[in-house]
Structures are given as structure tokens and as C-alpha cells.
Design a protein that fits this description.
single chain; 375 residues; alpha/beta; DNA polymerase, domain 1; Rossmann fold; Arc Repressor Mutant, subunit A; nine-stranded mixed sheet; three-stranded antiparallel sheet; 18 helices
């Protein structure tokens, strides 16, 4: 019998499930779906587990190895001692943007108090060895986005990543660093002082348990989270291969809007950006206004809190009014249908719908369907 202290059973058992050999996020969700709950996975017999599609006898035996439960018990103790939030994919606090994708982590770990459901999230990434111009491009972009109530997400690496976090802090923009290791340490170590400044509405997040070291294979996994969280992803400078290109590929798979800042034709720092643009995997970004126009964003100085629904309808931005008008004549629509009818890219319509759901104007249903909220 394992002692679960002041933490819900779902978190405990999903931490354990995430440590079962050969079980990743996709198989983890399959197991929970078939068994009915994370706890039920560990109560189901080896024979019944082995009958579940894609599981088999080896994984079923791994689940019944109690070492994973002991590991989860230790991890829960660390979370409580260190003041770390553990949030699982069945929790309402889990980022909605991550929840769209089955390969997203079963559990995430967070220091700080970032708004994981922030209205607008922009990922800013690039090379670890940027040119002086690249740093300026990142800083200017983020300064220009300040009136639009965005959150800046990046990977806390050297170069463009750290420049993005620093610029966000300088302009009072919330920022979230996604790590490729556990929260026991900060890598690179030179960014410990930067992380110390990321308090309040800022924070750092990882899918890796507390003591996980920064192994090379962790960082591509980290990159998919940056892509999934971002409504728009901006590549400032990148070589033809590397983490930024991997993140851009994920963002394209996730139907996010990717932007790339061009450079000189022979500049090695810009070859990756040029490749993305040439292959139609990124929009050419010369000024922040290019992104703002593509995303159909307007400055967000309005107070959207409180008031009745009629008041909210009167304060709608034009693209939000278009969604309301469309849903008024089509009471229930898929997100893809809305995007097609309104001629909006997937990331733009997702951002708009998320904002409108926070305002209480629309309501999401299973299967990415949306209706007007008449309550």
C-alpha cells in the first residue's frame, strides 16, 4: 500500500505510469481510456492489460512492477518539499493547447505561476550563437508585441532563447521557459540568475521528473512542447539543422503559424530561416506588424473581466464578432469548419476561440466543436 500525501490519486498514478518502460504519452492515454482511470491501470490484471491494443505482455508486466509506484511516491514527496506544481493531462489546469495533442506529456512540472491558458502565446526561438542583429530582431519583435497581451515561450537556451526571455521581462511581458531536464537544476547554469527573475506571472516548465539530467535526446521532446503551446512561432536565426528547425517542423505538424526572419543570402545564421520560407513552412517576417496582421490581433487594453454577456458582445473585436455571427446561424461547428468559413489559419482561429471561451462567449464541446454560450 503506497502513501499518497495531499496529492490527488490521478497525479500519483500518472507519474507512475509515465515511468513504465515502453509507455509514452500515447500509450498512457490508451491505457487510461481502456481501464477507466489512472489508478485502474495498476489494478487491472496482467492478462487483461495484455489484451489492450498496442500493449502486450511485456508492457503489462512492466506496469505490475511496483518500482514505478515507489518512484511516484518519492517524486510526490519532492514536489511538496520543493513547492513544484505537478499537473496531469486530466486536470483542468493542464494547458488547453497541449491537450489537443495525444503525444503531449501525461504530467508537467512547473515552478512559478504562469498562466497556462494565456490568451495569446508566441514562441520565439533561434540559434545558440546569434549575430548582434539577431538579438536586436528578437528584442524589437517582443517590444512591439507588448501592447497585445502576449506570453513569450522559449527554451531557456543560450542565444535567441535567453534574449527572448530577457526582452519579455524588460517589457513586462509574461514569459515561460520550457526545459529539457528536471527542475533539480538549471541548464545552462549561466541562466540561473535569469530564472530567478522569472517570478510572478512567469515560470519554467518541464515534462521531466525532478532529477532528470539534461541529456541530448530530451531537447527534441522539449521542442514539441514549445510548438504546441505557441499560437505563433517565430524563428529569428537558425542554421539548416538544429533545435529551431525541429521546433518549426513540429509547429507545422500542429498547424501553427510559423514565421521566419530573413537575413543575408550567404549568412549561415539565416540559412534555416531561408529554407523554411522557400519550402513554404514559414511566413516571411520583416516586422512585428506582419505577425500581428496574420494573426488578426488587436491591442488588448480592454477590460474583459466581469459584466454580463450582452456587455461582452458589445466589446467584441471584429474577428470575434465574425465567429459569433457564424455560430448564430450554425449552432454547432468544428474548429476546422470555423477556420475554413472565416478564412483564418488554424493557429489564429484557435487563439480567437480560446480567448472567447475565457470571456464566456462560446463553449467548447468534445471533438473540438464550439457553440455559443447562452447561459
Amino acid at each position: 500500500m503506497f502513501y499518497i500525501c495531499r496529492v490527488d490519486k490521478q497525479l500519483f498514478h500518472l507519474i507512475a505510469l509515465s515511468q513504465v518502460p515502453k509507455v509514452g504519452p500515447i500509450l498512457g492515454r490508451i491505457l487510461v481510456g481502456y481501464c477507466g482511470s489512472p489508478e485502474a491501470v495498476f489494478r487491472t490484471s496482467i492478462r487483461d492489460l495484455a489484451r489492450i491494443p498496442q500493449i502486450g505482455l511485456l508492457i503489462a508486466r512492466n506496469i505490475h512492477d511496483s518500482s514505478c509506484l515507489r518512484y511516484a511516491e518519492r517524486e510526490i514527496g519532492i514536489l511538496e518539499k520543493e513547492g513544484i506544481q505537478g499537473i496531469h493531462y486530466l486536470d483542468a489546469r493542464y494547458p488547453q493547447r497541449l491537450g489537443f495533442f495525444d503525444e503531449s506529456p501525461l504530467v508537467i512540472y512547473i515552478r512559478g505561476n504562469p498562466d497556462l491558458h494565456h490568451r495569446r502565446i508566441v514562441g520565439v526561438i533561434g540559434t545558440r550563437s546569434p549575430s548582434p542583429a539577431g538579438r536586436v530582431h528578437a528584442q524589437d519583435l517582443i517590444e512591439a508585441l507588448a501592447p497585445y497581451q502576449v506570453m513569450i515561450v522559449s527554451g531557456l537556451a543560450h542565444g535567441i532563447d535567453s534574449a527572448a526571455h530577457q526582452a519579455a521581462l524588460a517589457h513586462g511581458i509574461p514569459t515561460l521557459g520550457i526545459l529539457g531536464h528536471g527542475l533539480h537544476t538549471i541548464y545552462p547554469a549561466a541562466h540561473r540568475s535569469l530564472v530567478q527573475k522569472m517570478t510572478g506571472d512567469n515560470g519554467i516548465m518541464t515534462e521531466f521528473p525532478f532529477s532528470t539530467i539534461p541529456d541530448r535526446e530530451n531537447f527534441p521532446m522539449r521542442n514539441r512542447i514549445i510548438a504546441a503551446l505557441s499560437d505563433a512561432l517565430v524563428v529569428v536565426e537558425s542554421k539548416e539543422k538544429g533545435g529551431s528547425m525541429i521546433t518549426a517542423e513540429y509547429a507545422n505538424r500542429y498547424n501553427k503559424d510559423v514565421f521566419a526572419i530573413p537575413g543575408r543570402v550567404q549568412d549561415t545564421h539565416s540559412k534555416g530561416c531561408h529554407q523554411l520560407i522557400k519550402r513554404h513552412k514559414a511566413h516571411l517576417l520583416e516586422h512585428a506588424e506582419d505577425l500581428i496582421e496574420m494573426m488578426r490581433w488587436e491591442p488588448s487594453g480592454k477590460n474583459t473581466g466581469g459584466g454580463c454577456q450582452a456587455d461582452l458582445f458589445q466589446e467584441l473585436e471584429p474577428h470575434e464578432q465574425a465567429v459569433v455571427s457564424t455560430l448564430s446561424t450554425n449552432p454547432e461547428m468544428l474548429i476546422d469548419q470555423l477556420g475554413f468559413q472565416l478564412q483564418m489559419p488554424p493557429s489564429a482561429i484557435s487563439s480567437i476561440l480560446l480567448s472567447m471561451e475565457f470571456k464566456g462567449i462560446i463553449r467548447s464541446l468534445p471533438g473540438k466543436r464550439y457553440i455559443l454560450n447562452h447561459s
